[in-house]
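Appendix B, example 12.
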Amino acid sequence: MDATTKMTGHVCSPRAWRLIVALVGAAVLAGYLAHVAYFWPHINDDAFITFRYSRFLALGRGPHFNPGEHVEGYTNFSLMLLMAGFIHLFGPDDVLLAAKLTGAAGGIAAILAAWALCTRWLRQVESCAAAAPLVGWAAGAIVAADAAFALNSTTGLETTLFAAAIALGLWLDQKARDQRRWRGAGLLYAFGALTRPEGAGVFAAVALARLVTLDFVERPRRRALLLDLGIVAVFLAGHLTFRLAVYDGEWLPNTYYAKAGGFWKLTPTGYISGYAQRHLGAVLALLPLLAMIAGPRQLRNATLPALLVLVAAVGAIFAAGPDWMLGYRLLAPYTPVWAALAVCGLVMLLARLRVPRAGVTVGAAALVLLLAVWQAPTRVGYHEHVVTRAQGYRTGHRALARWLNRNASPGQTVALMDIGIVGYECIDLRILDITGLTDRCIARSPGEFLHKDFDPAYVLGQRPEFLVLVFTGPIEPGQIDIRNLQPWTPIEERIFESPDFARHYFRQRPVPRRAGMLKRLAAMIGAEAVFSHAHPGNIHYLLAVYRRADAAAPAEPGE
């Protein structure tokens, strides 16, 4: 066997080997971009909550949702600043495109980090070192093929930026450990902590792992760890100081209180098991443990921080509750870490079984294919959901925003649940958030998210000129039977049943015979106008806008 074969494990020149690795990597990234394009129509209303904060900051009004209301209703500080810069330079019209491109860029960085991290780990084992650059792309391919990760790349939220920060931080951390020199991991961990609150927990998990593995005993590694700790502490202290100064001395974002009880339709166990079943192949979710069980000591020490990061991610779901969004936003950022660990675990298992190198490469490729096929039904379901709701946002929320801009005066109040798109496009209206994300009183009320137990008088007593309630019910061919309609959330149901609502907002009137279905429905349910948001499943999702009876000027008809 010549030197080239010994170095690469394959009968080819070093140049050809590097070309093969590069071509595989290019194919993985191309596949990811195609996957992102598949979900590109996706719209997430919550992204526009952050964008409104960004737009206010760009306009010189401060990072607030309403003038004079110092409430932190976002948890993605770094993205808020990035989008504020974009709006300041290029205007507000293309902010969603900018956020989507940022998400795709974050996804590419996360995939590259998954490959680099897996490669560096495999090089800890002499028998795996030669093929590590090629086999490492299996980790990147798992991320690229993951439907939840691709979907979350298009939401306009911070998910993939956070994923990149975690995976790149772990890679630089391992690089520093191998080279016994600081490599900047703390900067990535700090960026992650500014991107998602869980970022602080990620670094805490890494630091704990390094203490367990006794890295602090060696002076170079101890210096690197302390430097990372200092950087993260400075950034966290700076962010906390900003929060205390800007948001009335609050130590935590308002969204923590709004969502602390979890989502009223999901449990942490159901959320985690659903993700594992749909995206990780059920029992295959445990593959990362094989890196600890079957791997040599040096690999166990190397991968322990990543494993504790996954444990911290799961623990955060139980501590703060699950999320309602399509695509498991709270777990998707950890896909690159899971993928790198899973590939290492599989390789260690195959090595224990004395599978030849070619078989290891085939096994890693088979894992990618298996997970991609496993997710096929989920992928199709996500796509149908995305396409349907993208149309729904055009005919529902955007149409409602245009109606409000025509009928409302600057400074008037609109109370509603879906505050993102309407809030961003109606920038001069005060938005009263009945879910509590941007309202301190509702957020601190008892109960789960969308099921907060507060007196409807809190909302109605503020005399909002407009009040938007969502109604839902099964679709009957060619008609909407109001007997089948009901408020979407318990919060809206209590408001709708309030005597004050009936007195000041509900104005049922004769049904015009020749009017369209939505105008007839508005007359029947006492609303000024109704906007239909296409929703997956055989149901209506109707945005009914009510106007206070003593508000000035009759409204224009709905679209």
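DSSP finds 26 helices and six strands in the chain. The CA atoms of residues 211 and 217 lie 9 Å apart.
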